[in-house]
UniProtKB/TrEMBL annotation:
Gene (name only): LOC110796353
Localization, UniProt: Membrane
Family: Belongs to the amino acid-polyamine-organocation (APC) superfamily. Cationic amino acid transporter (CAT) (TC 2.A.3.3) family.
Pfam families named in the record: AA_permease_2 (PF13520)
Protein name in UniProt: Cationic amino acid transporter 1 isoform X2
Membrane topology summary: Multi-pass membrane protein
Keywords: Membrane, Transmembrane, Transmembrane helix
Family matches, as PANTHER family: CATIONIC AMINO ACID TRANSPORTER 1, INNER MEMBRANE TRANSPORTER YGJI-RELATED
Organism: Spinacia oleracea
Positions of transmembrane segments: 80-99, 111-133, 154-175, 209-226, 233-252, 272-292, 304-330, 350-373
Length: 404
């Protein structure tokens, strides 16, 4: 039973929690409190700019003072198991189902297997860098926080803009690809599910309501619970891995080793040229580093999660590319739908549906992990007041803590 004093406390907390945003929530600095302060700040711009160029943050500042801007700590609920599946979900998307055929046909031939290995090694080196920083500075800011410590606020500010732009553009691109693969699964063309706005300019008039709905659902799932998102992610990733295993096993039953000759038709240059493009298929692991603040034991869990997931992804990519090259001569591999056409060539046309499901599962987990990573980047950027600090507030559990 709730007493009158507890009820009044609850009412006050609700009002405080759900009140509207004031000017100070968006512009808390003294420079914006009055026009005279603003003009004085403008006169100090050269000195402030030099200060931004030369001043660097400290590890302790990021771990304590900056985190305190959120008023509440993030709940530590993730283990190495969660991070491993987040890493797999963040990386394995539609790239493997498209780029493999393109690079095998145009640049590397059967040596595309080596191209994937080279890209995997390069990605692993990046993962090792992220791992070192994430263990030393386990905060939600990821690379933004690391740059503040190593290169200062100015470089971190430039990186913040690039990070936000990267997540917005890549999320939109993956969501549109989701529609394309969904259309394939339904035996339709992608434009059948899009709205053509004839009054808009060409290439900007294909409105994609399915992509909007998918992103909206993903964001809701990401907001509800990071642990729940983790469970959904590794369930989807397990299904995706099972489909990849099926593709490899079913494909190898139609393997012909003669298709591997010549192995390097475009020479060493083609191998490295293809690896530069295929690196795109490994992008996404940086989002895992933003979850360091919610990891129970960062010193142990982050290295296992990041390195383990990248090793699994690299092995999966190499096996899939080997399977494709064994099924068809490299010059016959379709550049747009390599696995679908390869299975159709050997009489397994129905397998295209499994390929489409695998791609959809992969893109769904990529969108989910990207949404989680983007939210944490925005939180830490807002903590430093490079964005409105209102965006850094963590309200989870506030009412329950106060009322008991």
């Amino acid at each position: 039973m709730v007493t009158q004093s507890e009820g009044s406390t609850t009412t006050r907390m609700r009002r405080r929690r759900f009140r509207g945003c004031s000017k100070n929530d968006f512009l808390p600095e003294e420079s914006f409190q009055s026009w005279s302060n603003y003009m004085s700040a403008l006169k100090e711009t050269p000195a402030r700019f030099m200060n931004r160029l030369t001043t660097r943050s400290l590890d302790d500042t990021e771990l304590n003072q900056v985190k305190a801007e959120s008023n509440h700590d993030m709940k530590k609920s993730l283990t190495w198991w969660d991070l491993t599946w987040f890493g797999i979900g963040a990386v394995i998307g539609a790239g493997i189902f498209v780029l493999t055929g393109q690079e095998a046909n145009q640049d590397a031939g059967p040596a595309v297997i080596l191209s994937f290995a080279v890209s995997g090694v390069s990605a692993m080196l990046s993962v090792l860098c992220y791992t070192e920083f994430a263990v030393e500075i386990p905060v939600a800011g990821g690379s933004f926080a690391y740059l503040r410590v190593e290169l200062g606020d100015f470089m971190a500010f430039i990186a913040a803009g690039n990070i936000i732009l990267e997540y917005v553009i890549s999320g939109a691109a993956v969501a549109r690809s989701w529609t394309s693969y969904f259309a394939t699964l339904c035996n339709h063309k992608p434009d059948d599910f899009r709205i053509i706005a004839h009054n808009l300019s060409a290439n900007y008039n294909h409105l994609d309501p399915i992509a909007v709905v998918v992103i909206g659902i993903i964001c809701v799932v990401a907001v509800i619970s990071v642990k729940g998102s983790s469970r959904l992610n590794y369930f989807s990733s397990i299904v995706h891995i099972c489909i990849i295993i099926f593709i490899v096993i079913a494909g190898l039953t139609h393997a012909d080793t003669n298709n591997l000759a010549p192995f390097t038709p475009f020479g060493p240059r083609g191998i490295f040229q293809a690896s530069a493009v295929l690196f795109f298929a490994y992008v996404g692991f940086d989002a895992v580093s933003t979850m360091a603040e919610e990891t129970k034991n960062p010193g142990r869990d982050i290295p296992i999660g990041l390195i383990g997931s990248m090793a699994i992804v690299t092995i999966a990519y190499c096996l899939m590319s080997l399977t494709l090259c064994l099924m068809q001569p490299y010059h016959q591999i379709d550049r747009d739908a390599p696995f679908t056409m390869a299975f159709e060539k050997v009489g397994m046309r129905w397998a295209k549906y499994l390929v489409a499901i695998g791609a959809l599962k992969g893109m769904t987990t990529v969108l989910l992990v990207s949404a989680i990573g983007q939210a944490r980047y925005l939180t830490h950027i807002a903590r430093t007041h490079m964005m409105p600090p209102w965006l850094a507030q963590l309200l989870t559990g506030e009412l329950h803590k106060q009322v008991g």
